[in-house]
Amino acid sequence: MSRVVVERAGLLESAHRVHVAVVDSEGRLSASVGDAERIVFHRSAAKPFQAVPLVDDKVAERFTLTTEELALCCASHSGEPEHEALARSILSKAGLDESDLECGPHLPLDRAAAEALLRAGGSPSAIHNNCSGKHAGMLALAVAHGWPTRGYIRRDHPVQVRMVAEMCRWTKLQEDGIGLGQDGCGVVSFATPLARLAGGFARLGGADGPPQADRVGHVRSSVLGRRDWTIRNRPRPRGGRASLREDGGGGCVCGGRYRRKLWDGGQGGGRRKAGDSGGGSARARPIGSARWN
Fold this sequence. Notes:
The chain is α+β, with helices and mostly antiparallel strands. Helices cover 32% and strands 23% of the residues. It has one domain (3-292): Beta-lactamase, CATH 3.40.710. Helix 1 runs parallel beside helix 6 (132-145) and helix 1 (47-56) packs across helix 7.
């Protein structure tokens, strides 16, 4: 069994089982660790796919969404002032405001932003939720199609029905092959075999992916990537290629490497799932040492 173990003072503190799948855009498994067919929830790793309808349905064009705003729709942000401003701008362009968000409030994940909010006598709101960009995008999609905005997080709402269809498209699964749950922010969360999600990331940057992926991906790095744990959608030139990475809750890490030219000819997608067996989060940054075992 492959796992990452965390030690403190030479003693085992926790152990995290790891499953990895490396898949190309045709769905061929080229490398794996653990169980590549393990069923896993995508959580926030689904955000890039959930944002695709904004481009395909010309929602971004209709509301003149900027590259930075599209990037926020794909991201788990940290609630810094610039992130709040982008989320509010998306809502305003769709004729909505913060009261339309149904993701619930929490303090900004960025410590400095949270402390500044509290020192000013403020309280957390839905705009500070790390998923408010995704929710703002979903609301814009609803407005563009003439769908009701209230209840957009419900499984039977047209927005969530569209999200399920989008995941079927990228994972190449039928609807009955995708498990559905509820994410922490209230919307539908998807569960598929590990390798299927990896294949989806490979396809997203391939010829079938939206042409804006290259532009949006590069902006994510500068707008949202300054906090290492906040958002990992960071295409970086590496020998003529670019990479895309997105993290989800519960130890889910996804990524792909693509040719830089228009992102066509996606080369492969990787998906790692770390399962916690020590009572902590696989995202934790423990004071101790971690090693592969």
